[in-house]
């Protein structure tokens, strides 16, 4: 993976309140990174520093790609935009200094990606929150961008709008964009995000994402003749519980990684074990939810 | 810069917030000249004071025309906040210029004056209107949302500074007792005094030009102060 951008030892203090303390992490190409944390933990502050809206007190944001362009979508969605999407995007593009012709092409292309072709000439004031949010993402993409910074893009949207926006974001990732977003809804992170960074006590920690199969475990309960040996499967299972049944067989409850489950089952069956129960364990997810 | 200007202007037009001050301006101008004949400089003196107050109204609505969240985005596209606020000032100045022209030319066109105004009357009238417009813009902008967070305070601030500036004209004898103070206060009184000259003047005294120049310099200093405070507050 190629590194797009590196955040190095960033600190930020508002008056006497230290919000960010010596934070460092990197963003890679074609990935979606979520920044999570409690209200007031400094998520927006960090995004503003990366987006160049405010300055940090110390530290640097190093761009590893030549002329890396960052598109920034603020936390507060403007509600009184008195233009249609087409007019609005055209104005914003012109202000950025994009010539008329490529700008018009870009706008058409964006309207299509975001599925907004029908609404192109309705005033934004009349839009739903989800549509406004899309327009805000589109304006950030007018110039050739590599990294999109979205501050709570999904908040305030109903599940359907969230779903749709999520799909759009995934399609952007496929098109080669990287996305750094903040989010409070953990459910959404599951399907969308490659990596999760947690801000806590002005520090950043990387959480392992539960979306990766390797982090998920399954629980298997099986019956097993006591005279047989389990050695060949023991390498990838972890025994939680073992008891002897009346018929002399053993009943075992074991934990196995998702990716090893098929292998374990096959080995167990070959050793004349009888499977009673198989169910997914989401311990990581349970741990994860305690962060909110 | 041109596209930013175009955007800001279209946005302002769509807010319709210019309508109340604009109608008051039209109404007062028409009513003021409803009866003929009128004295020239006296009438100009009145309409320039009116324009001074209304330009405060225009300035606040122009500076507050864009959605606050959108402002951040627009500044990002414009790649700098100074150019953003310069365009707002330019829009104010253009409006001030147009209304100054209307104020000066309307009575001439409908023939509302007792005698034919000379070129000197027209130049003096225009300078009085335009200089007071610029002064009102400069003073009012200080109270807009970048420097004064509370909307209520913006309006009270603008109203008080404009009225105080006008009141200085009549309190001049008191203020003169503190040496140098008069130079610090907004020089509205200069224009009002010049406009109280007799209509029979047939040449503009050189001192008048200097007084107008001082009004413009004073406005420029106040606008500079705005940018100075703005850039110090920036990037908090
Ligand atoms: N301009 C400012 N001046 C002073 N303090 C500020 C300023 N902006 C933010 N703060 C403080 O910095 C802290 C972090 O704010 P920030 O907006 O980054 O939090 P957040 O994680 O985005 O919260 P939320 O989840 O509510 O969006 C907060 O305690 C806030 O009060
Ligand atoms: Mg925030």
Automatic annotation (TrEMBL), chain A:
A single GO molecular function term of this UniProt record: ATP hydrolysis activity
UniProt signal peptide: none
Keyword terms of this UniProt record: ATP-binding, Nucleotide-binding, Transport
Domain annotation ABC transporter: ranges: 5-226
Claim: Protein transport is one of the keywords in the record: no
Alphabetical list of CDD domains matching this protein: ABC_DR_subfamily_A
Record Pfam families: ABC_tran
Domain of life: Bacteria
Protein name: ABC transporter ATP-binding protein
Organism from which the protein derives: Lysinibacillus mangiferihumi
Taxonomic lineage from the root: Bacteria, Bacillati, Bacillota, Bacilli, Bacillales
TrEMBL record, chain B:
Keyword flag Transmembrane helix: yes
Domain of life: Bacteria
Presence of keyword Transmembrane helix: yes
UniProtKB keywords: Membrane, Transmembrane, Transmembrane helix
Transmembrane domains' residue ranges: 21-40, 46-65, 86-113, 119-143, 155-175, 208-230
Protein name per UniProt: ABC transporter permease
Organism this protein belongs to: Lysinibacillus mangiferihumi
């Amino acid at each position: 993976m190629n590194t797009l951008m590196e955040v190095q030892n960033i600190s930020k203090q508002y008056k006497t309140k230290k919000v960010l303390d010596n934070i460092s992490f990197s963003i890679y190409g074609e990935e979606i990174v979520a920044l999570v944390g409690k209200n007031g933990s400094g998520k927006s502050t960090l995004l503003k520093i990366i987006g160049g809206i405010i300055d940090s007190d110390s530290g640097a944001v190093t761009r590893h790609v030549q002329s890396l362009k960052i598109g920034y979508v603020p936390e507060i969605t403007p509600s009184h935009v008195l233009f249609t999407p087409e007019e609005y995007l055209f104005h914003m593009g012109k202000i950025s200094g994009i010539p008329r012709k490529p700008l018009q092409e870009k706008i058409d292309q964006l309207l299509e990606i975001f599925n907004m072709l029908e609404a192109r000439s309705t005033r934004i004031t009349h839009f739903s929150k989800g549509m406004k949010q899309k327009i805000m993402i589109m304006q950030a993409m007018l110039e050739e961008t590599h990294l999109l910074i979205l501050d709570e893009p999904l908040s305030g949207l109903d599940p359907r709008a969230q779903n749709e926006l999520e799909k759009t974001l995934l399609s952007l990732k496929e098109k080669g964009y990287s996305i750094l977003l903040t989010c409070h809804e953990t459910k959404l992170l599951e399907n969308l995000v490659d990596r999760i960074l947690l801000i806590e006590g002005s520090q950043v920690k990387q959480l392992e994402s539960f979306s990766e199969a390797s982090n998920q475990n399954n629980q298997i309960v099986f019956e097993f003749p006591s005279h047989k040996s389990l050695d060949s499967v023991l390498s990838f299972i972890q025994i939680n519980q073992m008891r002897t049944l009346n018929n002399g067989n053993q009943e075992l409850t074991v934990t196995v990684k998702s990716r090893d489950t098929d292998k374990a089952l096959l080995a167990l069956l070959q050793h004349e074990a009888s499977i009673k129960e198989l169910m997914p364990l989401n311990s990581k997810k349970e741990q994860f939810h305690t962060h909110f | 810069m041109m596209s930013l200007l175009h955007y800001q202007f279209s946005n302002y037009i769509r807010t319709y917030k210019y309508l109340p001050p604009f109608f008051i301006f039209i109404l007062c101008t028409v009513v003021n000249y409803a009866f003929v004949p009128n004295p020239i400089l006296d009438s100009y003196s009145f309409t320039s004071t009116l324009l001074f107050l209304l330009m405060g109204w225009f300035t606040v609505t122009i500076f507050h025309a864009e959605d606050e969240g959108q402002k951040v985005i627009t500044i990002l596209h414009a790649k700098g906040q100074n150019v953003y606020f310069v365009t707002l000032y330019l829009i104010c100045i253009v409006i001030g210029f147009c209304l100054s022209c209307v104020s000066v030319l309307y009575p001439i066109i409908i023939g509302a004056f007792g005698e034919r105004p000379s070129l000197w009357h027209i130049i003096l009238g225009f300078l009085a209107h335009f200089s007071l417009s610029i002064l009102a813009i400069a003073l009012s902008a200080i109270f807009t949302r970048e420097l004064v967070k509370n909307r209520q305070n913006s309006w009270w601030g603008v109203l008080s500074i404009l009225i105080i500036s006008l009141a200085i004209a009549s309190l001049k004898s008191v203020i003169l007792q503190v040496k140098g103070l008069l130079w610090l206060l907004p020089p509205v009184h200069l224009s009002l005094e010049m406009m109280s000259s007799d209509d029979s003047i047939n040449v503009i005294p050189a001192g008048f030009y200097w007084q107008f120049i001082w009004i413009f310099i004073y406005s420029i200093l106040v606008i500079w102060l705005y940018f100075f405070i703005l850039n110090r507050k920036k990037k908090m």
